[in-house]
Write a structure and sequence with these properties.
46% helix; alpha/beta; D-Maltodextrin-Binding Protein, domain 2
Length: 338
């Protein structure tokens, strides 16, 4: 357990940031003129996401004949998603793979994609991406960023130390809510629970001490971050898809020649498609692994009307504050969830 704790802390260590980054916000190129794209992610290097990033980096270097390098800082080496986005804006980093929480620090309304009851299946997700991709591209462009590729990180489930079958069970628990995520925090307020607001790096220690006893996560995420070692129960049904994307600062992209920009965009899209396939496969496997390791599955379907009612109220409370009514309606119509 000591080793697991050490690993978790290392995965999200912030102390190495100043050493790893070095340099200024000016163009990061070596003596031969190679452009380096500094890319941050919370995903551990050995995870499915980390492996796809390595393959993408190799393809990018090969297809630009060495002119462009994707230098990946994985495992949260540059901090939580808030830290990475801040560093991109400051010119200390160039790109990142983040969840909707990180994306929302650039374009707040993107959180509509994580609103409860809106996107609950991969089929719905595919329809939303197809129909609304151009609109989100425009939003990020206005903020000075380019969305290189969408990705997802598995099916979101509730995991806990005590069984959670209905929303009211959360009232007597200590549920974690990502401090930059207003969606789940609002849901908890709707059901009368008190969220414990923490950054991702703080979750594992909080599970160790009992400060937190419920976490929303995908199976693949819980295994990669070793959270599952401190949990006993997991919801059978998914409460949505954990969404994210890779984005790059527009100024950095424009440093590349038109030909190299095209290569970056093409290889990013291929990496995104590969990631979807690998993550969905590995998320299903991780779910089975957790069960094999003794995690008990909790059936929440008898109380589904209560979960849906709480989700609906959460969406309504956030409309006008986080996203517009028209954007919510567009996403719901595209997903077929209305």
């Amino acid at each position: 357990m000591r080793q697991a704790a050490k690993k978790s802390r290392l995965v999200f260590a912030l102390v190495a940031a100043s050493v790893l980054l070095g340099g200024s916000g000016a163009r990061d190129a070596d003596a031969a003129g190679k452009t380096v794209i500094r890319y941050g992610t919370l995903a551990p290097a050995g995870s499915a996401f980390g492996k796809v990033l390595k393959a993408w980096s190799r393809s990018l270097t090969k297809e630009t004949e060495g002119r462009v390098e994707l230098r990946v800082y994985s495992g949260g080496a540059q901090g939580d998603e808030r830290d990475v986005i801040r560093k991109i804006r400051a010119g200390q980093m160039d790109a990142a793979g983040v969840t909707t929480v990180g994306l929302s620090l650039v374009v707040r309304p993107v959180l509509v994609l994580s609103a409860p009851g809106v996107i609950e299946s991969y089929e719905q997700l595919a329809r939303v991406r197809e129909k609304l991709n151009a609109r989100f591209d425009e939003m990020f462009a206005e903020a000075g960023f380019v969305l290189l590729a969408w990705s997802d990180a598995g099916k979101g489930r509730l995991m806990s130390t005590l069984p959670i079958t209905k929303p009211s069970d959360l009232r007597t628990s200590r549920p974690w809510a990502w401090k930059d995520d207003p969606i789940f925090a609002e849901f908890l307020k709707v059901v009368g629970a008190n969220p414990v607001r923490l950054g991702v790096p703080e979750v594992y220690p909080a599970l160790q001490t009992g400060m937190v006893d419920v976490v929303p996560a995908s199976a693949i995420g819980a295994v990669a971050l070793q959270w599952f070692t401190k949990l006993k129960y997991m919801s059978k049904d998914s409460f949505g898809i954990v969404l994210g994307a890779t984005l790059i600062k527009k100024e950095k992209l424009e440093e590349l020649s038109p030909g190299d920009q095209k290569v970056l965009l093409d290889t990013a899209k291929r990496a995104g498609l590969a990631l979807d396939q690998v993550v969905r496969r590995d998320d299903a496997r991780a779910y089975d692994v957790m069960i094999e390791r003794g995690i008990e599955v909790v059936d929440t379907t008898p109380f589904r009307p209560e979960w849906e009612a709480a989700g609906k109220e959460t969406r309504e409370r956030l409309t006008g504050r986080i996203y517009s009514e028209s954007l919510l309606a567009e996403v719901q119509a595209a997903a077929g969830s209305r």
